[in-house]
Amino acid sequence: MTAVKPKPTNKYSPVIAARRRRIADRLDTERAGDRASAKIVATISFVRAHIDPVKLAEEHALTESCWVEYAYMSPFERTEKFHGVYLKAFRDWWGKCKDVNAAPFRLPVPERFSECAEEDLNSLWAARQCADRVGVPYREFIRLAFEQTTAGGWKRFPRPNQLGAATKNGEIARDYWDRWGNHQSMSIEGWSRMFRAENYSGHQQQLRLHEVLEKGIRGKAINLSYYLAGEQHVFPEHIARRRFGDEVVNEALDIVSARLGDEAMKEAREIAGRATTPSAPGCFGYRKFAVASACEQCPMQKACIQIEGMSTTKLVEDYASEDPRRDRKRELGRARVARHRALKRAGLLKQKPQDVTHPL
Question: Of 108, 134, 165, 250, which has the fewest CB atoms closer than 10 Å, so is most exposed?
Answer without folding.
Answer: 250
